[in-house]
Amino acid sequence: MIESFGQVVIGGNFVVGFVVFIILMIINFIVVTKGAERISEVSARFTLDAMPGKQMAIDADLNAGLINQAQAQTRRKDVASEADFYGAMDGASKFVRGDAIAGMMILAINLIGGVCIGIFKYNLSADAAFQQYVLMTIGDGLVAQIPSLLCALHRGGDYRHPRQRQRRYRP
C-alpha cells in the first residue's frame, strides 16, 4: 500500500514526484493546519470574551420574567458547554499541529536513514537507493499525512456546528 501511494505521486519521475509531495506537505501544514489552528484560537477567544455578556443576558431575561429558572439553567449550561467545546477544540488543534510537525520530522529521518541504509548496508548505488527510499518515504508520508489533512478539515467544520445549531433555535 505504501509503495502504491508512492507510485501514484511519483508517476515515473522521482524528482517531480518528490517536489509534488513536498508541495502537498506544505499545503497540509501551512495552509490547512495553521489555518485551522488560528480559527480555533480566535473562536475560543471570542466565545470566552462573549461569555459574561451571555450570562448577563440570561440574568436580565430571568429578572424580567421572560424565562423561568429552569430555562435560565438550560441556557447557562448551553453557554458553558459552548465555551468548553471551543476550549477543547483549541487544545486539539495544538495536538494536530504537533502531529504534522512530527510527521515531517519522521519523513526526513526515513529518507536520510533509508538512503544511508541502502548505500552502506545493501551496497546500492546512490541513485538506486534514492529511488527506492524516496518511493517508500513518499508513500509512508502520504499514508501519514492524509489522516492529518482529514482531521484538520473536519476540525474546521466542527467550529461552525454550534453556530448553525444556535441559528436554528434563536433567530
Report on this structure.
This protein is mainly α. It has one domain. The chain has helices spanning 2-10, 14-64, 69-120, 126-158, 161-169. α1 (2-10) packs across α4. The protein is rod-shaped and about 85 Å long. 20% of the residues are buried. The mean pLDDT is 83. This is Flagellar biosynthesis protein FlhA. The chain crosses the membrane at residues 6-31, 100-120, 132-153. Keywords: Membrane, Transmembrane, Transmembrane helix. It comes from Escherichia coli.
Which key features would you list for this structure?
single chain; 171 residues; mainly alpha; 5 helices; 0% strand; rod-shaped; Flagellar biosynthesis protein FlhA
Brief digest:
It holds the Pfam family FHIPEP. InterPro entries: FHIPEP_CS, T3SS_FHIPEP. The chain is mainly α.
Q: Cα-atom Rg, whole angstroms?
A: 24 Å
- Return the structural class: mainly alpha
**What fraction of the residues are assigned to beta strands by DSSP?**
under 5%
Largest sheet descriptor: none
The total number of structural domains is 1
**What share of residues is helical?**
over 70%
Oligomer: single chain
